Amino acid sequence: MWVTPTEEEIFKKYSPELQKRALAGREQRQKDYDAFVAQLKEASRSDKPIWLAQKEMDAKRSAEAQQIRREEQDAYVAEERRRQAEVRASTQ
Fold this sequence. Notes:
It is found in: Mitochondrion inner membrane. The chain is an all-alpha fold. It has 2 domains: 7-45; 48-92. The protein has helices at residues 7-12, 16-44, 50-91. It is flat, with a radius of gyration of 25 Å.
């Protein structure tokens, strides 16, 4: 018969420094895992195979991220042009 230690027993055997690092990253890992599971659940609702649904979701997320970057860039350019116009107006 094999006895497998629990997560807590393994954690207690860590060095104090390693315990601190594990505790510090635990919340972020849990958030990442929860997001991953939610994403899988969303992809599984589709009639398509999960890998195709996942690929489509990734493409959609990528397009949204590109749109946000474009909007930020446009806002930056508009702000720069406004500042340049302000400087030109103040020098005249």
